[in-house]
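Action item from last week, closing it out:
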Amino acid sequence: MSSELKTVAVRHQNNAEIRLESIGGLGANLAGKMLAEAGVLRMGLNGWNAASYGSEKKGTPVKSYVRLTPPDVQIRGANPIEEPDVVGVFHEALFKTQNCIAGLKTDGILVVNTTKTPEQIRKESGLHTGTVVCVDAMGISVEEKTRVNTAMLGALCRVVPILDPDKVRDVIRDTFQGKYPGLTEANIRTFDRGYAEVTVQEFPPEAGEIPQPFVRPVSDFGYQTQNPGGIINTAGNSVLKDMSASRQGFLPDLNLAECIHCGNCDQVCPDMCFVWEPKENEKGRTFMFLQGIDYQYCKGCLKCVDVCPTSALTQLREEDLYAEEHSVKHDFPIIVG
């Protein structure tokens, strides 16, 4: 174990309050259940697990909570974890739309699915002090043909000493052996790689720095803070009009040189991401020509790739800033109020 991980282990060896920040479809809910099951049934700990989410579909924000304590410490609370010891972020784009580190203790651990460095994640997340753990869970899951949740479980077991990786591995095996036996060994490999392929960096507080007390964030859409009468000013739209957190690692890449402007992509796109412009064709007739993709609405469903009759649309693993640099904006006004 590296010196960074030993330092983390000393501070978090007795119990753990873990909050998983994710989107629907990445398996955070199942990951929380497996952690709690491993703790209670395999390690003899006291444990509690719950999840919160809106509509049960891919792309929507999900939070999963896990409390684990030694057998002599009772768990009396069933409330959401507001001041976690550990936060696991299953999709780094969530930093754009969610306060993922809200309440994270000053000596807490932030585990992120990313290809970036801990220093980059610290700045992007707004973290001041604590430990940042980075793991390319998406890359591992793509290579192993699994989902990111078991890779994230591996990374969590690496830095949370109360978790026994052998016991968590046994729960993963039992879980997949019962429902998807063909995916069992692939998920075990994914877990092992998540455990091994982490990058860790600690950011200690400055000398004389006083920790700030936790302040519960106020929701803009609570029963006291929403618009009078519950009026929805952005009917039919995402409030932030940013679907980037819904993409699960991939997006459609457009090569206009191969495009025949057939419109198949536009017909299957659920979010009107494709931008068109009327132009005259070689016969002098007005025709709609595809200009590009407005990625702020793209959820990465890749239906357009499936129906494209040419090689104009292909699947691309999303890179940082790729969508922002290649996005073509709609030129019609968007009504927001």
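Closing note: The longest helix spans residues 28-42.
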